[in-house]
Amino acid sequence: MSLSSVVDRTAALLTRWRRARLLHPRGRSFTAEVVVRGTPGRPTGVALVDRPGRYPAMVRFSRGTPTPDGWPDVLGVAVRLYDADPAHPVDLLVSSSAAGPLRRHVPVPRRRVTGVYSTIMAYRAGRRRLWLAVLPDPASPDLGRSLADVDAVVRTGTPRLRLAVASAVGPWRVFGEVRLGDPLDAGVDAATAFDPIGHLPAGLRAAGPLARLREGAYRGSRRARGAVTRPDHPTGPPDPARSDDPARSDGPAQSGGSTATTV
């Protein structure tokens, strides 16, 4: 039996016991729009990151464990892009981390939702190793310390997050942004399942033991919950009235981040 199969079965058992997602059980989901402006400097070889585009999306904020709001926890952001790949939605999952090159692969518990989130695990684009990140937008409202705070901020404004990419030692390069839309029903949040290994954008791949462990854990959790990875946006694109013109100038936001964490 392969390591991935063992992890799959273990994850399924734990999920049935908890009657919830194995990881990041508590969350809030929102409609969103992802605007990609392209990678500044050297291209990554990943079309979704390098080429300008605009995609309907879904975003989920979550807590890694069932800790009370306000306690330190490894927080997560999952970004699902629709229409970005003809075969499946694209899932980008990131966890709270440090920003620096030597620490972006280490999960960092924190209290506040606003902060740096990275994929933790490196991906491969050709021979290059790449990390993706969701970064705070200094011009956007603070998202607070709890999932309820995030919900309240989204209901009263149009918060934005930056999407970025980096090599093993290079700085984050912002390549786009996520514009949050309307809150989604709790039933949609509970039913949606993400696949951070099988639903990567074309040109990006996961490799190594950690990828196999992650693949098994997510697959087992989805199977035990009877969850499916929805091919279509649950409510359609966000209301255009809540989005700014994608061609507007955002200063630093035009020079670097992109796409996507939750079982």
Verbal overview:
- The chain is α+β, with helices and mostly antiparallel strands.
- Helices cover 20% and strands 26% of the residues.
- It is built from five helices and nine strands.
- It has helices spanning 3-18, 47-50, 147-156, 186-191, 209-225; strands at 26-36, 53-63, 75-81, 90-96, 117-118, 123-125, 128-136, 160-166, 173-183.
- It has an eight-stranded antiparallel barrel.
- Strand 3 and strand 4 (90-96) form a beta hairpin.
- The longest helix is centred in the last third of the chain and has 17 residues, at 209-225.
- It starts with a helix and ends in a 38-residue tail after the last helix.
Q: Profile the largest sheet.
A: 8 strands, antiparallel, barrel
Question: How do the strands line up in the largest sheet?
Answer: 1-2-3-4-5-7-8-9
Q: What's the gyration radius in Å? A: 17 Å
Alpha-beta classification: alpha+beta
Proportion in β-strands: 25-35%
Q: Which descriptors would you attach to this protein?
A:
263 residues, alpha+beta, 5 helices, globular, disordered C terminus
What is the compact description of this entry?
By secondary structure, the chain is α+β, with helices and mostly antiparallel strands. The chain is built from five helices and nine strands.
Topology:
Elements: H1 3-18, E1 26-36, H2 47-50, E2 53-63, E3 75-81, E4 90-96, E5 117-118, E6 123-125, E7 128-136, H3 147-156, E8 160-166, E9 173-183, H4 186-191, H5 209-225
Helix pairs in contact: 1-5
